[in-house]
Amino acid sequence: AEMFVQAGDLASAQDCYRKAGKEKEATLAAAKHFESQQEWREAGIAFYNAGAFLHAGNCSAKANLMADAAKAFEQAGAHYRAALAYYQLRKFEDAIRCLQRIRESDPDFNASRALLGRVFFDMHDYAHCAATLSNHLTGMRVETGNIEYFYMLALAYEQMGNLEQSRDLLLKIHSVNTVYRDVTTRLSNVSS
Questions:
Q1: Burial of 103 from C-beta contacts in 10 A (0-12 / 13-18 / 19+)
Q2: Residue 104 per-residue DSSP state
Q3: Three-state DSSP class for 166?
């Protein structure tokens, strides 16, 4: 079977593994075969059945099967990737659950806080959005890479009636990019 794997003959490798009673290895060989053929749906299913959850999530995402991707990423402990998939499905509670599992030491922690703020914003939970984003953005300067989140925070403050805080953020955004979205119009609205 190993020779077939090295030769790239994954279908033959799968047969050998099955005959040897190595079902997991056979399933993994099938998954790799489907992946090599860019048959993402089948590869995702096979990788999942073989317990290779991260690969399963990647293949399912490529097949645009976000529910399967989310499930696989969650099984793999890739909570940020699972949350992104749930967010795309508009399953906000599941996204929040995954995002809140991410530890500060995780390399995706900062991105997860920004996504958490976006989830709360899309749920129209402006108080949680503001709390999450203000905590995440504290000490940061408005720049091109984070302007979207400062804008979202300004809108959340505006929705909550905190017009002074909204105006302050909109002024900072305007100082970085005078034509960013509707910042000029919003500035005149919250200033009057």
A1: exposed
A2: T
A3: helix
Q: How many whole angstroms separate alpha carbon 47 and alpha carbon 61?
A: 13
User: DSSP character for 68?
Assistant: H
Name the phi and psi angles at 149, rounded to 5: -75, -35
Q: For residue 130, what are its two tokens? A: 């503001």
CB atoms within 10 A of CB 29: 26
Report pLDDT digits (tens) over 93-152: 999 999 999 999 999 999 999 999 999 999 999 999 999 999 999 999 999 999 999 999
Model confidence over 7-28: pLDDT tens digits? 566 667 667 776 777 778 778 8
Q: Which residues of 55-94 are buried (b: 16+ CB within 10 A; e: fewer)?
A: bbbbbbbebebbebbbbbbbbbebbbbbbbbbbeeebbeb
Which value, to the nearest 10 degrees, does the dihedral of the CA atoms of residues 8, 64, 56, 97 take? 160
Beta carbons within 8 Å of 153's beta carbon, 6+ residues apart: 117, 129, 130, 133, 134, 137, 169
Give the Cα separation of 71 and 11 in Å (integer): 27
Q: What is the DSSP letter of 147?
A: H
User: Pseudo-torsion of CA 70, 74, 79, 81, nearest 10°?
Assistant: -30
